[in-house]
Amino acid sequence: MTNPRNTTSITKRIPAAMGNIAVGFALFAVIGVIVGSLWAATRATEYKATTLYYLRPPETTDATQALTADMYSFNRAKLYVSLFTSTELADRAAKRIRSDKSPSDLAASVSASDVYQTSLISVTVTAPTSDEALLIARGYASEVPSYAAHVEKDSGLRNAAGLIAAVDGPRTSEAGTGGWMIPAIAGAAFGLVGALLSLWYRRRFLVDDLVSISASLGISPYVELDSRDPDTVDRLTARVMSDPEIKHVLTLASPTQGDGAKALAEAMAESGDRLDIAVRVVNSEGHPQSSDDLKLTWRAVLEETPTRHVHTSGPLLVVARRYVTTKSGLQNTVRLLSASGLDPAGVVVLKGRSLRSRFRRSTSGGSGERAESSTPAVPVGG
After folding, report:
1. CA geometry: angle at 286 spanning 235 and 242, to 5°?
2. What pLDDT digit, counting tens, does each position of 183-228 carry?
3. At what angle do helices 231-242 and 261-275 cross, to 10 degrees?
4. CB 285, CB 312: distance < 8 Å
């Protein structure tokens, strides 16, 4: 049977995980732009030679035959589009220009299309160099009239050898900036969509700032901590000690352990060492011992008591991590606390990197000096 406690914990972590996926999506898309652009930029430049052919209507002696001849030429152009990419014509062109390429390889470098509602055919040859593209295009132009006569030999047309001829070109051009620009632009657009998705998700579903989340919960804002500045926790600890409503007993509650209640309690204990305040951190109930100046209890509410009421003593602060804690998880935590008759005294929002790991770095080495930061805590209210 599924444990409801584990199920609740997992479901509350899913939205935050999705937010991290969205961030990763945008990050890897940007990396894809860079890698794709470098890969495309190393590719050999290709050149194109384009020739325009005109399929002449058969000779006629009256207006009725002329109309029929025009329709014949128009429909015949569609047939010649496929003939331009045939290996038979490629073999003739290869012999003409004395190319070492096989007929199939030469045919693969040729593309053809009919010009809409005309008897014109546009034929493009792609090659590594401009000279090679021109050579192949001219080889085709030389062989097409005789090839047309071969194809039409049983059709009864007079002067079939002059049925088709090049009327423009060949004209050469670089294959275009698409070699590296297209993947770069596509990757940039892909990354932009991912970034916008990430921004929308974080604004929509995750805790973003102290004032807005406090207003949505109907709870007084208490403080917003910048984890890049250890001094902010010292100021929070001193503030808690001087708060007449707290009376040296405080519970920190968050939806899960990863949402900051435990990390903040341990950071405040380290702050007590620096401020010469006896701080004891427990995960149980009761009153402070005589040797304690401040007793901290931390609760991961949705992990510990998904279906039962929360029991604790003393005032309570709700803790959330910016862009990690989900708004729905925080709302469910407050709802469960309210059902237990507990009214939180305020909301604490942690921002920046991992609070606990930051304090370990700042207090290691025995120097006793705390990191300086130009970004102070943001106290609100009280």
Report:
1. 25
2. 667 766 777 777 777 778 888 888 988 888 998 888 888 888 886 7
3. 80
4. yes
